Structures are given as structure tokens and as C-alpha cells.
Amino acid sequence: MAGVMLREVTKAYGPVVVIPKLDLTIKEGEFVVIVGPSGCGKSTTLRMIAGLETVSGGSIYIAGKEVTHAAPKARDIAMVFQSYALYPHMNVAGNMSFALRLAGTPKAEVEERVRRAAEMLELIPYLDRKPKDLSGGQRQRVAMGRSIVRDAYCFLFDEPLSNLDAKLRATMRTELAVLHKRLERTMVYVTHDQIEAMTMADRIVIMEKGVIQQVGTPREVYTAPANLFVAGFIGSPSMNFLEGEIADEAGVLRVRGAGFDLPVPGRMKERVSAARNRDVTVGLRPEHFSANDSGGVLAPIQLQVDVAEYIGSSQFLAAVVGQQHVTASVDVGPDAEPLRSGDYYFDADRIYLFDRASGQAL
Amino acid sequence: MSSGRIDSPMKIWAHYAGLLVLAAICLMPIWVMISTSLKNEVLIFDGTPVWFFFFPTLENYEYILTRGKFDRYLTNSVIVASLSTFLTLFLGGLCAYALARTEFKGRRFVANATLLVRMVPPAVLAVPAFAMVVTFSLDNDLAVLTFFYTALNLPFAIWLLFGFYKQIPVELEEAAIVDGASPLQVFFRVLLPLMKSGYAVAGIFAFRIAWNEFILALLLTGRKTRTLPVGAAGFITDTGVEWGRIMAMGTLIVIPPLLFTFFAARQIIAGMTAGAVKG
User: Fold this and answer.
1) What residues does the ABC transporter domain cover (chain A) (predicted)?
2) Would you state the pLDDT for residue B214?
3) What CATH architecture does domain B60-274 belong to?
4) DSSP assignment of A23-42, as one string?
5) Which of A141, A166, B91, B96 has the least CB density, counted as fewest CB within 10 Å?
């Protein structure tokens, strides 16, 4: 099968195992983002795909060929580094053409391909400049151009946007997505920023401690997180976790805890009833709180508001439910007064329940 | 002077006056050397020294260039200095690269300990070196002198180049590898251009030390393998010191390292403008 495949790949530094056993299949032409906190093994995984890091066990396939122990240049990959890694002594054109020149591509073709990539990235006016005379965003684009020129089978990105300021990052995110559409190449992108993952990915791979926690589309990992880690990692601000338990009230399942009492959504009933009398963790996303009862399946919940932060059309509340701290993002419009303690509502259909012992979603 | 600050004219004058004094202190011995080389014996030993206004003569130069063994000494010096400089840079570069790129316990210590070796003055090594060379009958061999100079210069070169290599992010090499470069191509097309200033600095030091070194050269060379400094010392004879000829020789000795330094310094400038690896 084409694409990129990792089969039972392990990585250990001496006795320290950083990646126990990793299986991942990336389809041809897919944009996959590997996301996780620093030290979760995502960069190591990418570097193993690139061939910059040896593999301790298992095998890696790119475009159907086994490349586990192949040199990077035999893998038909291009890579963009976090620090861009532009050759400081070469100008933009030199940087972009380096790989082609090494491969002995005819001069006319090198020029043509560099020109085409530079056009795509709006780098034509800068071709004669050295990297130090470019802005951060331009350097970023040169780094990208360097890999585009290669026309490689697979593109690898190692946190390429983390050195840019917030505004430029947003622009580059869009450019990258557009680029992926145009090139239709397999892309593997590593980041610790879940917004980047959500906005660009066809599928997201969430890793922690060298283990894949969940693989899914952005919608899947947001609406159906597999466990507490994924639930807490995806979404901004992150999900609130409250301790509670399942109660059966004359056939109606409810989840209760200090300061809250919410009905269990119908879709979960079967799975939850098996968890009766077990300790559960309730997950409430901040954005599913609301200030007034607009109908539907809203359940009342009392919030003791400590601070209300004004951020435009909504307000972030740092509040207490029972004795547990929660964050709520309440959409009240830009003209509302600072919100106070009192009755709020929660969209009861969007409750998440996790087994407290295992952390797995119910 | 720091930029963006406007100093009073007085301060600027004082600054340049200070620089002038320092320059004079540095340049005076050189002028004494050059002027003495252009004087005849009578003028040199004149009771009241003449600094500037005298009738120059080239008889000292004529003597050493036509009647001495200057060409042989020069050839020996050039061979020894350039060969040992090349070896120092080649071996030192390899060691420094290995030190900078491999992780092991006590790496910093090893890098700095090499510098400790450099603190031993050549005079201390002279006796054991002489004993060794004589035992193995290796005296009168330019290769031996080259070997000793290389050994003498290696620690400093390693330490210096280690610092330069540390500054080059490993991602640059990885990027080149992904771009399809072989190890040699990574070195010659990515690392070497960025290391130009480092190699230039190390080269200037190594060449200068090998070129000027006297004690080891005196002990380890014979009639055929004498280098320029030893040759110059030959004018200190039982019948007197021929200052004019020594100074003429000294003046000529200065020229090659001067040329070498100018050439190497150009690489330092080139390296600095290429630098700025990260923005």
C-alpha cells in the first residue's frame, strides 16, 4: 500500500524506551498532524520517518517500499525544520536549488523549478538575498520552497511555525493548507499546537509518552475523544473535568457530583449503565456553557464566578462548581455587563464521561 | 565607541591619542628592525642612535640573499610551517567536529583539557623531544619538526574549532542530508563555508607559531634542515653580533606570515558576513 506506514516501530536510547510500539498508517496524499505535549515522542517519530533517527525495532514503509534502514536521500522525502535550517552562506535561490544541484539536475530545469516554486511562494524578488536579510515569514517560505522544489513523495514538517508570531502563524497555516491542496502530496506535520492540528489536518494523531492516544479527523477527536488525555488536549480553553458518579433515578440515569446534577445523554445510556456505581470523571467543554435557557436539552448548573474576562463577544469565566474549579466561555455578546455568580446552563447532550480509574471514555 | 551615542570632540581626540600611543608602542620595535636593517655597521654602533634621517643601504639584504643560505632556510620554513598548519587544521577540525557532535560524559572537560596541554611551553618539551629524536636518529628531518609543530598547535586548534562547530546547528547538516548530500558533500558544501572564519583564525595561529618557533627548531634541525629563525641566529657569532644582517633577515621573515594573515583574515570577514545562522 502506498503512503507512509509504521509497523510496530520502537525507539529506545539505551535502556530508556521513548516509543514502545507504534503503528500508524498515513494514506497517500493525506495531511496528517502528529500532536502532543513536548517530549511525547512526536518529533522522534517524524525523524524516524525521515531517517535522521535510527529505528530500534519494527519497520517503516514509504510509497510501498521498506525504508526502515535506508538513508534519508533514498526515501524520497523533503523536510522543513523548526529552525528552518537555511544554509546561511547561500542565497534564496541557492538554498532552494541545493538538493537539485546535488542530484545533478540539468541547470535549465533547476532554474525552472526554483522559479516555479518561488512564484508559488511569492519569493521571486528575494531570490538573490541571503537568509539573514529575510524576515521570519520569508525564511519560513524559503524553507518550504526548498522542499517543494524537490517534488518529493512525502513532506515532513517539524514544528515549522513555532518561531513565528501569532498573526503570521495564522497566515502560514492557511498557505500550508492551500499548498497541500495544490501539491496533493503526503504530508506529515508535527506540532504541539492543537489549533494548528485542528485547522490543517485531514487526520490528527495525538501522542503522549510515546503512545498514540487517538487517531481521527479533527471532528472525531473533538466530539469523541477516546480518553481523558485527548479530551483535555484538544479544545481551547481545555475541557473541565469534575469528579462525579452515575446515579439511577427510577430508570433515568444521571451524573452527580458536588454542585451539579446532569442527565446522561441518551446516546450514552447503554454504555453508562454498565458503569453504574463506579467513579466517573465528567468532562464539560467551556464553550458549552450558556447564560440563559434557550430551550433544547439545557441543564441548569450553578457557577460561583471568581473572575469574568472580557474577550469581545464572549466572556471567560473562572468559576467554582461545588469545590471544583471550572472555566466557562459564555457567549453573551460584546455589550454585556461582566457576568456574576448564579444559574447557568450546560448543553446536556455534550457531556463527556470517563472511567476515573482507566481514564477511558465511556 | 558604542553606536548611537554622540561623544564630545575632546573625548574623541583623547580616544585617538590613546590609540596612537598604543600603535607607536607596537610599531616602534618593527621600525627599529627595519631601520637597522638599512644601516651599515658604523651607523648601527654609533653612539647617538639615528632614528629617521640616515642614508639607507641594502648591503645587509644583498649579503643574506646572495651569500647566505637564505633560500634554503626559506624553503625549509615554508615547508614546515605550511605542512604543519595544514595538518593542524585537518586533524584539529576532525577532532573538534567529533567533540562537538558526539555526546559523551565529560565532553566539555575533554575539550577544555586539550587547552591545558597547550599551556606547556615549548622549552619544557625541548629536552625530551631532543632526547627522543636523537635516540631514534631522526634529527635533521623536516618531517620531525613538522610533527612536533603539529602536536604543539593541535590542542589550541581543537579547542578553537570546537567552539566554532558548536555554533553550527546540527539541523543544517540534517537538512543537507535530507537534501541528498553525502557526508563529504555535507562537509565541503555546508560546513566548510560556515567554518571559514574558524579555520582562518586557527590557521593564522598555527602558521605563526610554526613559522616563528626557535627552540625546537634549533635543537632538531641540522645544516640542511635549518629554518629561518635558526638561520637568523647564525649571525650571532664568536666574533660579534651582526645586527644589520639579523635585522634584514628579520624583516624578510615577517613578510610571509603577514601575507598569510592578510589572506586568512579575508576569510574571517567572509565568514562573519555569511554567519548569522539563526535570526
Assistant:
1) 4-234
2) 87
3) Orthogonal Bundle (1.10)
4) EEEE-TT-EEEEE-STTSSH
5) A166
